[in-house]
């Protein structure tokens, strides 16, 4: 098991990432050209099947062992009034997950996926990033390690998500630090804040950017200083999945901030990931465009919890069913023109 004992050790891991299986991808692409349909007529379903083949290392991909990993964290920046819900809702929702009462419980079950919810010191919020780094180096590395260790050794697919009151503010701060702009360019209404709450979110992001200054030019420092434990854990899980060549579905804006950190360190860092959906948070659409990722779904959702990622599993199931189950022209006795 890899142990990230230093920031530089973590950075080195991000800079040396395995590629997918191009032979499997080419075989999958060749199969697509023989199936009983006009070439390209299934659009992105064809691309999705080839993507899965590349990262599973088999020309006939499968979706049998699926894991949904949800990480929960508490944020000190909530003291600045950036959420419509109180900070204690994070712990209450984790309890709801355990009881099976949340949306993600229903969606994971419907998708045929195993759900694992990991709380990260939710009784101890991160520091208010407008006053101090959100996490010490030790806290940051521990959160990354927790996410990294949560990814199983073998899986056909992993979907990532989160829960944490205040975390859209942290995600906006990470996005601004990595990609530029000010708070107003990245914040949205999150849990449903009013105009005054939206202004407080933008002000908090700007204060965090000013507080940490040039430190934010390093992606890992940016995630540590203005992010959150659950964002760091998703970053660690995304890294682990890549190292194990497991394809990943990314959920919403907060998950996107974790993904942006990896691609800021390694331009090819997200080759094993798909954007499951684009959320109603305005910063998410901008973030995906900057990352060059096109979402599979656009359903005006803003729940988090990997809810959009779970729904996208069903799209991928359709892609795999067609790729594996359709007859070829030769098998069906159909002329291919």
List keywords for this structure.
5-stranded parallel sheet; 8% strand; 337 residues; 51% helix; globular; single chain; alpha/beta; 15 helices
Contiguous uncertain segments of 5+ residues: none
Mean pLDDT across all amino acids: 97
Q: How is the largest sheet built, in terms of strand order?
A: 2-1-3-4-5
Query: What proportion of the residues form beta strands (DSSP E)?
Result: 5-15%
Number of strands: 5
> Biggest sheet, in brief?
5 strands, parallel
Helix-strand string: HHHEHHEHEHHHHHEHEHHH
State the share of residues found in helices, binned by percent.
40-55%
Number of helices: 15
Q: Which radius of gyration do the C-alpha atoms yield?
A: 20 Å
The termini sit apart by: 53 Å
Structural class: alpha/beta
Tell me what the structure shows.
- The chain is of the alpha/beta class and 337 residues long.
- It has 15 helices and five strands.
- The protein has helices spanning 7-15, 22-32, 44-56, 89-99, 103-111, 137-150, 167-179, 183-186, 195-212, 219-226, 229-243, 253-265, 282-291, 307-325, 329-332; strands at residues 66-72, 114-119, 157-163, 248-250, 273-275.
- Strands 2-1-3-4-5 form a five-stranded parallel beta sheet, sandwiched between helices.
- Helix 6 crosses helix 11, helix 7 (167-179) crosses helix 9 (195-212) and helix 7 (167-179) runs parallel beside helix 12.
- The radius of gyration is 20 Å and the shape is globular.
- The mean pLDDT is 97.
